[in-house]
Amino acid sequence: MAVYDRRVQHALHTLSLPLTPAPGRYGRYLQLLDDLLHHGAARAAGWSARDIDTALYWTGGNPPQPAPA
Questions:
Q1: What is the distance between the alpha carbons of residues 20 and 67, in angstroms, rounded to a whole number?
Q2: What angle do CA 29, 56, 69 make, to 5 degrees?
Q3: How many C-beta neighbours within 10 Å does residue 12 have?
Q4: Concatenated DSSP letters for 15-69?
């Protein structure tokens, strides 16, 4: 299973890869991972979708938290 959380969302935003909160976001995220894997074939040789998922998670770091209400 892919890990999708605020870190990944932050990484995607930083990379200008849109992923809206509309219904079906997780499925669209999985498709985005697949697209990244196939479009980056030369640089992603030996990578899996899970590797890209993990890289996005760590790239997202510790994004700013929304201010408490």
A1: 21
A2: 80
A3: 18
A4: TT----SSTTHHHHHHHHHHHHHHHTTTTSTT--HHHHHHHHHHHT-SPPPPPP-
Integer Cα distance of 45 and 66 in angstroms: 37
Burial of 22 per CB tally in 10 Å (0-12, 13-18, 19+): exposed
User: What DSSP designation does 1 have?
Assistant: -
pLDDT of residue 44: 67
Tell me the pLDDT tens digit for each residue of 23-45: 998 899 999 988 888 876 656 67
Query: Could you read off the pLDDT of 56-67 as tens digits, one per residue?
Result: 888 888 766 677
